[in-house]
Amino acid sequence: MTAVFDKIYELADQLDKGSPTELDDRARACRTTKEAVKDAKSLLESVRVELSEGWHGGAGERALASLEDFKKNRDEQAEDLEESARSFEVVRDALAHAQQEGRNKRAEAKALQTKLDGVWNDHGHGGGNIVLAWAEDKLVKAKALILLADLQRVVTTYDAVLLAEGLKLRTKTGSVWELAGSEKRNLAEIGAIILKEIPGLAALIAKHPELDWALLHGDWDKIMQNPEVAQKIYDYFGFKYVEDGGFYTTGEHSVQSYLGWHDLYDKLEPVIGAHLDHTSDGGDNMEFTDPKTGKQYRLELWKGSYGFGQAYGGEVGFYTSEAGDDSGYFSAAQGDDQIKVTQQIYDKTSGEVYFTNDGQGADGTDKKHFWNLAIRNDPSVDSGNLGQRATIEVRDVGMRDRMYDEMTRYAAAHPEENLSVTKVSDDPPVLSYDWRK
């Protein structure tokens, strides 16, 4: 039994290694730097205005345009710093809560251990009844096991926050993991954490009798109406319900963001109960390369039925691979490579629009993501009659033009897809398409 108490103390000590104060300092540092960036932006703007009065001609106009770009970059940098500050604060609050829970559990464990020692000390000195002593022993040990399970839940919940917020920070200002007393997770560890949490998720649903029927009949709309359950599903699987639109989407740092894309995934559709149209045919995909960096990009579209015919919807995914990588694997687009998508699913015959996802699921306010997904539970909709239209905004005109050229090439090579593509604007760089396969 000593091992159970030792494990409780070990977990509590592990949590105490983190520093909420240091995380708070990092959040404040991000905001201080953000203000400095905004000051730099103001200075750039004043310089640009002064120079614009005297600079004319091609070279001067290009220089002024560069200054304008620098100013825009400062806006993006300030937004990144603010989002990073918020992530540090989320981790800070989660760590402070976990540490308090750990201290409480440690104190309860010490009290139980003292009580257990007292039971047998009394018996050893001739006091008490052996039967009662054994009964008390069993009761104390049972309480200790419950304490351990509760503390493990606390640690796992904290890990979930680290996984989500840590990935956001690694794409911006650095790594939060070491600051919080944890370590970066590899894919195997992420999978292990998720599998470990599934019984807890089932127990959470079981706590609410009104959800038993919903779980039995796969009524996820009902299940996701419970805030506690919905948050747990979002923490571990990235799915969340968009109340206004009546559909499910995914967070930017969901588990799927770790998995990237490979053609093999399309072959797994029957396993997950999906029957989808997708823009890949015999190995021909919508892919293009940045001529300056050699970096490869892939755009893929999906629409159809999900959940063994119980739901319908569509997806727009954007992925990248480094120059020279011929493995067939693409990573989820990150940073400036991400795109802003407004996806609409409609009935091709009647023209009725079922729903529109205007970037829900993306972090922050820029609505840029690697994946625009929208799924609605409704088995009565004919998924074979779905159309998908969307606008896609990218970082610059060059990328927009390369994407447009590749989409029009693909459309011409596969007329059965009924895919039409249009350039919308240069500022911002946007194209639109209508897919009526």
TrEMBL record:
Annotated source species: Amycolatopsis heterodermiae
Positions of region (Disordered): 416-437
InterPro entries per record: DUF4474, ESAT-6-like_sf, PPE_sf
Coiled-coil region: 67-115
Keywords, alphabetical: Coiled coil
Pfam families membership: DUF4474 (PF14751)
Protein name per the record: DUF4474 domain-containing protein
Keyword Lipoprotein appears in the UniProt entry: no
